[in-house]
Amino acid sequence: MGGCTLTGALAVTTSVTDGISIVHGPAGCAHHNFSLFFSTALGNDEVRIPAIASSCLSGEDVIFGGEDALEIALDRARSKDPGTIFVLTSCVAATIGDDVAGICAERTGIPVVLVPTEGFLGGDFRKGFSNALIALSDGCRQSDRTGGVNIIGEKNLDSMAEIHYREVRRLLAALGLSVNIRFVRNIRSGDIPRLGCGCLNILRDTGLSDVGEHFEHRLGIPALGGFPAGLSGTIRFLESAGECCDLDWAGAVLREESFQREMIEEFMSLSGHHVRLVMEPGSDGFSHASELAGAVGLIFDDEGSPLPVPSPFPVGTTGCRRLLHRWRCAVRD
After folding, report:
1. Residue 104 near residue 77 (C-beta atoms within 8 A)
2. 196, 190, 211: which is closest to 17 by C-alpha?
3. Is 180 exposed, middle or buried (0-12, 13-18, 19+ CB in 10 A)?
4. Is the pTM value of this prediction over 0.90?
């Protein structure tokens, strides 16, 4: 999350499957991110070519202005007949002062969405990610809130994204709720306005609180911060989602607690083993891991077997099951 602002925004815009993202800057900015996204997709067993283009600013453009280069890039993108064109500003374009907003506003026909991503002004990956989510929502309008739940800000570069999503969808189904839109993951331009129909926004993590507040202010949709993590965290998620949607959550909670007890019983062979928790870089799941370890009777010991605590922490009860499988293998080794 501490990387380039431009990369954070592209992690959103390239997940609009009929869109084209133009990086207004030197060719290297686009090439670096194209390579990153393509190789990441291959690593996640996806064959997907990200639709990233460049205005290819030259040294002459930096001196005399790059607006003509952007015009040419926009014309080329329009010739591909995309659903939406996203224009992302690089540090170079911001430095030379191109009127990118004015050029984007002049375009008619195919929608052109400007996403500010000049990282040298203090942004990072997370800021670019948030800016893109907000920019894509600007054309949405408040609706009757009957469309189900909006999933906001999934980590599109995470190899576990689909597994995490399925667990959230399972938990929502236990409450009788469906998913309205994944904003933004593998959707088309025509899906974007559905955002305004959601009854609840579920943020991927608490770091997107600014996005949740923006959507609540503009669209009147309340936000629930963060995917469920850990045993008790999953129960709280069911309670909170049910309360936000004025649903009776008691039955869903009882069923999930029963499911968790059955899972814990399956791994009670771990009881009595001496272990120590090893936090992977960026992990903030110590409390969730401690709760899970205690539930299966593991004993904390500085000299015990090392157990990994991944980042991000696995989602929901089924995520806890996957982690327990890893831990059982670690203890046996």
Report:
1. no
2. 190
3. buried
4. yes
Residue 102 tokens read as 């004015």
Q: What angle do CA 134, 29, 6 make, to 5 degrees?
A: 20
φ, ψ (nearest 5 deg) of residue 147: -90, 0
Which residue's entry shows tokens 């080329």? 76
Q: Compute CA distances 277 → 77, 260, 291, 293, 307, whole Å.
A: 50, 21, 12, 9, 5
Domains and CATH numbers, the chain: 5-137 (3.40.50.1980), 149-227 (3.40.50.1980), 261-332 (no CATH)
Q: Identify which of 184, 226, 219 has the alpha carbon closest to the alpha carbon of residue 202.
A: 226
In tens digits, what is the pLDDT along the chain, a chain of 333 residues? Answer: 567 899 999 999 999 999 999 999 999 988 988 888 888 877 777 777 889 999 999 988 788 888 999 999 999 999 999 999 999 998 888 888 889 999 999 877 899 999 988 766 667 899 999 999 999 998 888 877 777 999 999 999 888 999 999 999 999 999 999 999 999 999 999 999 999 999 999 999 999 999 999 999 999 999 998 999 999 999 999 999 999 999 999 999 999 999 999 999 999 999 999 999 999 887 789 999 999 999 999 999 999 999 999 988 999 999 999 999 999 999 876
CB 270 within 8 A of CB 239: no
Q: Counting beta carbons within 10 angstroms of the beta carbon of residue 221, is it exposed (0 to 12), middle (13 to 18) or buried (19 or more)?
A: buried
Strand duo 179-183 + 200-203: pairing: unpaired
| Rounded CA separation 263/258 (Å) | 9
201 and 223 Cβ atoms separated by less than 8 Å: yes
